[in-house]
Amino acid sequence: MTMHLLLGQTLGFSGNPLTGDWQGTVLFDSAGGILIENARITATGNGAALRRAHPDAEVTNYGDAIISAGFVDAHMHYPQTGIIASWGKQLIDWLNTYTFPEETRFGDRAYADAVADRTLDLAVAHGTTTLTSFCTIHPESVDAIFEAAAARNMAVIAGKTCMDRNAPDTLRDTAQTAYDDSKALLEKWHGKGRARYAITPRFSPTSTPDQLRALGALWAEHPTCLMQTHLSEQHPEIAWVRDLFPQARDYLDTYEAYGLLGKNGLYGHAIHLEPREIDRLAEVGAAVVHCPTSNTFIGSGLFDLMGLAKAALSIGLATDTGGGSSFSMLRTMAAAYEIGQLRGTALHPAQLMWLATEGSAGALKMAGEIGHLGAGAVADVTVLNLQSTLAIAQRADRADDIWDALFPTIMMGDDRAIRDVWIAGVRQLR
Ligand code: GUN
Ligand code: ZN
């Protein structure tokens, strides 16, 4: 097995820069290196010292480029790749007009395979090495994304989206078939290679209490699976949930009452939360996922990142493709910055990079395994060129420190800024 040594400006983290002093959590070396053996990072440190200690390692020198953990997208919908950037609708109309007709097509395995391949190619081109995806109600759509991920040795988390009401006939299952199909799929995929299964009720408006109860029971039987859904994204949606579940204390209670609140739970959006919801999410150690380009694109609202971080919630960052308007986690960081500004907090580049790597990995309960530039982690690595366009380069040229040099790439960068990607120690040939 070849030993690889990557040289460049290494950027990693030893803690959470959202809470407390961010400086103390940054591991930055302008002449750093990472050693890769057998798909994992086995050492990080000074590049020259690593070179002397490992003269047999194959060296790739990235010069001034930043070597980071690969980006981790903690919430997206691969079946919506084809309808990204669809005009003019807010959440419920957007689902009915664009999303549901497109998702109907995923009963065709060849179509699902083509979109799964395209989505993972786009992810890697944008420096994303792990993504967490909703599928459609069709079990074939789950096989398609996991097979595409296995072909690339990517750590992908996915699950069959369950809906038994308020969706077109062609996209409805039942409480029993949602349970049976999800069970068969998680037995097939959860823990196979790098795959992890997420039990996936779409959101409480499209599941009956019977279906939510059945999926809660399945999660209790398979507690190492993740559970992903949506929570408190848009005001009309929240009012609809109140009508559908009149006895619920709040939106989160529509999950909690049926066994769908737990530490391996991932709650997308979580914008308009009540104090009780925040307390309960924190108490059980569940994670919320910030989807900033989606929250502005669909007109949902301004996620309270700092408030929720202070409440000790685990927070991931995500594109929410195709409600989100970009495949790029750089653009996603930029949108998180812009929303932070509207809420009165200028997020530091270190905090943004942490969210896109360690934060998301923590939300997925995979901290130390992915999203981490340190010994023991899988070698999923993204290398950023800080001079990828004229607009970025002319600004970065005046930078007097690494953060000033990196921030223009966060704000203006796209797939052209991705100099290279490694997945499980294999270079993705760029
Ligand atoms: N809520 C329920 N389904 C969806 C979806 O597909 N996208 C977004 N953004 N929100 C949802
Ligand atoms: Zn979503």
UniProtKB/TrEMBL annotation:
Pfam family, one: Amidohydro_1
Co-factor note (free text): Binds 1 zinc ion per subunit.
UniProt EC number: 3.5.4.3
Span of domain Aminodeoxyfutalosine deaminase/Imidazolonepropionase-like composite: 32-57
Start and end residues of each Amidohydrolase-related domain: 66-425
Keywords: Hydrolase, Metal-binding, Zinc
GO molecular function annotations of the record: guanine deaminase activity; zinc ion binding
Gene Ontology biological-process annotations: guanine catabolic process
Cofactor: Zn(2+)
GO cellular component entries: cytosol
Associated pathway: Purine metabolism; guanine degradation; xanthine from guanine: step 1/1
Family: Belongs to the metallo-dependent hydrolases superfamily. ATZ/TRZ family.
Protein name as catalogued: Guanine deaminase
Organism for this UniProt entry: Yoonia algicola
